[in-house]
Structure formats: C-alpha cells, structure tokens
Amino acid sequence: MIRSDSVNGVVRRGHLGRIARFRAKWRGKRDGERGVPRIPVRYFEGRQSEPPELFEPPDPDELPLPAYVMEVRTTARRAMEQMRSSMIGQEHALISKLRAESVRVVTQYDVREDPRPAALARYGQWVGQWRTTVDRCRSHAQAVADQANQQLACYWDAVRATHPQFIRLAGRPPGDWLPGRVELDPSWHRPDVWLLADDEDARTATSRALQILERQNTHSTRNTHRVGGRSTR
Predict the structure, then answer these.
(1) What is residue 87's predicted lDDT score, i.e. its pLDDT?
(2) pLDDT tens, residue by residue, 153-166
(3) Are 205 and 103 within 8 A, CB to CB?
(4) Whole-model pTM?
(5) What is the pLDDT of residue 233?
(6) Residue ranges making up the domain that contains 113
(7) How far apart are CA 88 and CA 203, in angstroms?
(8) Considering its fold, how many domains does the chain have in total?
C-alpha cells in the first residue's frame, strides 16, 4: 500500500517497489481464486453454450470494486489531499498577499476606474508564482496516483489469471482497462480555485481580480499579433 507518511519516497522512486508489487499480486491471486469480484450476470446471459473466447471483458464502471482496490484508492487520495493541504499551509503568506492585492486591483480598475498596468503586472507575477508552485505539487501528486495505478494493474493481472470467470474472457482486456483507476481531482488543473474564499463561482475580489488579469493578458497577446496595424491571423 502507499503510506501517507512515505509520499516523498514515492515521488523519488517513481515506480512500484518489489514488495508492493508482490503484495498487490498476492491479494489479486487470493481474491481471484475466491471469485472476487463477481462479474455482472448480464455478461453471461444467453451465452452459456458459446465458446469461452466469445466473452467480453466487463465495463470497468460496472464492476464492483473489491476491498483492496478501495483501500489503494483511499490511501492515494489521502496522500494527495495531504500534499495539497501542506502546500496551501506553506504558501499561506503568498495566498494572503494575493488576496489583499486582489482587493486593490478591483478597487483601482472597477471602483476608481483608474488602471495601473504596473501594479497589475506585479499582481500577475505573484499569480504566476502561485501557479508554478501548484504545478510542482501536482507533479508529485500525479506520481502518487501513478504508483497507485501500478498497484492496481498488478492486482488485476493476478485476478484475471486466477478468477474462474475472468479466465473465460477473450484474451486480455484493452490496455486502458483498470477498474478503480486513481485520478487527480479536477481542481488540481484549476489552481486559482484554491485562492478563492468560497467556490469558483463566488463573486469575490480575488475572482474578479483574476478576471481583470486574464483580460489584460488576452489584450496584450492580441496586440503582439498585430503588425503595422494589421492582424497576423
């Protein structure tokens, strides 16, 4: 199993250790011999007389997840959540600075209607620093997810080799067949959401300041594509 207190080791190795691989295969072999999990009946209805090779692999979303799979998923998710919480705690000063500066940006652009490009550029640098920090943390979290999926792959390989119903399937399932696959929470790819006091739809000063910054960046990008007053597009 992936232990939450050894996340750094997971990231450094980048691959599944021999002991973890052995445990995953052992659990898969044991569950498979016991007929765990049960394949939904509909995959066998009306096919009892057909050759074994005609049976198709069950849809991963329809297959009941065994206890081992749930354990791997829960442990990996806990480790990734700890990574996120730790990062947010370590970057508390930057987050506080961004939120305070967001109020000033909104006041300057929306209330006073007196744009200050230099101040907005400084704000953009801090936002970029935040996003870079999240990108680095996300790569570590992805390593945890990848290792968890390696465990699951070893487990399911052993299940398919010993399960009385899986043995009747036509060859190996597709390469992406992995029931219980561990994936990053979608918010990992939208780090600005974590800057908001509420959710991403809240009308906060931070959300408005980010909109102003994005609008300015879009405007600047368009200007760089113009040559002699004509667009290069």
Answers:
(1) 95
(2) 999 999 989 998 88
(3) yes
(4) 0.80
(5) 45
(6) 4-231
(7) 21
(8) 1
